[in-house]
Amino acid sequence: MAKRKKRKNKKNNQIKELAALVISAGTVFLGGGTINSCSTIDELGHLGNSSETDSSDIAHYSDLETVTIPKTLPSQIKEYLGFTVSFNKDNKTPNYVAWELLGEEVTGDQERSNNFWTDSEIDGCPSTKDYTRSGYDRGHMCPAADQKWSTQAMSDCFVMTNICPQLHELNAGAWSTLENKERQWARRDSAIMIISGPIYDKTDTKTIGDAKVRVPSAFFKVLLAPYIDQPRGIAFVYPNISSPGNMQDYAMSIDELEKLLGYDFFPALPDEIENKVEATFSFKEWNSSK
């Protein structure tokens, strides 16, 4: 994970410098996609959410952003600062966007950018103009409010590879409500993994803009709390409409979503943990304040 790698290297360098001083004083985590030159893999894992946590006491899981998708799907993978995208050049939208959200990051003071930009390194990346007067919002998969911890992360968040056509009623309604809940849960659980993307049906033939960005009929979210005493997972599917009703009405197990999409989420987890967190879900447990 690009964000974690950059941050951890800085911390590791500080530790090495301190160790060197002490010694001198005499004291003894893609399947299904194509990885391009922009891709890197974070081998350092997760370090916890604060200086109060002893990282040696935490189970570290590398490559939790890895998702195995059907080989028939075009996929160009790129790691931005804070999230990873698998981009589909045919749909002109991501297959999925994956990121880790630390509890300490949700209170960052970086202002929202609103400067959407096209990534010239990504084949088929649309322009912000493709959404102009289309009737659809530029819907973030990884939301800007999750990237307030860094100026660069906030800028990266507005890349068009992170965007899908979303009806405003969903983007500003139920989808936004879920995003706010995710930040609450990240604070509670110290860190959560989030994977989000569009869902296309064979009948989804509508496109917008000169780039012909394909409009999805629904969106998914996968959540994992891997570092609590009893790891848990949950998935959500929202149709690309106003999506009224209670949040739990749109919840399902990760296994159910995998069957719907043909994806395999969190293949890097130990099997006994992956099987447990993906087979069942409890919205009540996720929504608990404890």
Task: Give an overview of the whole structure.
The longest helix has 23 residues. An eight-stranded mixed beta sheet has the order 1-3-4-5-8-11-12-13, sandwiched between helices. Strands 2-14 form a two-stranded antiparallel sheet. It has a single domain, classed as Extracellular Endonuclease, Chain A, CATH 3.40.570. The protein has 290 residues and is α+β, with helices and mostly antiparallel strands. The N terminus is likely disordered. A hairpin with a 6-residue loop joins strand 11 and strand 12. 25% of the residues lie in helices and 23% in strands.
Concise structural overview:
The chain is of the alpha+beta class and 290 residues long. Helix content is 25%, strand content 23%.
Write the layout of secondary structure elements.
Layout: H1 2-24, E1 34-35, E2 67-68, E3 76-80, E4 83-88, E5 93-102, E6 137-140, H2 151-157, E7 163-166, H3 168-171, H4 174-189, E8 191-199, E9 207-208, E10 213-214, E11 218-225, E12 232-239, E13 251-252, H5 254-261, E14 264-265, H6 271-279, H7 283-287
Parallel strand pairs: 1-3
Antiparallel strand pairs: 2-14, 3-4, 4-5, 5-8, 6-7, 8-11, 9-10, 11-12, 12-13
- Count of helices? 7
**What is the name of the CATH class?**
Alpha Beta
Q: Can you tell me the CATH architecture?
A: 3-Layer(aba) Sandwich
Number of strands: 14
* Multimeric status of the protein: single chain
Q: How many structural domains?
A: 1
| Rounded mean pLDDT score | 84
**CATH topology title:** Extracellular Endonuclease, Chain A
Shape: globular
Q: State the distance separating the first and last CA atoms.
A: 28 Å
Strand content: 15-25%
**Radius of gyration computed on alpha carbons:** 19 Å
| H-E string | HEEEEEEHEHHEEEEEEHEHH
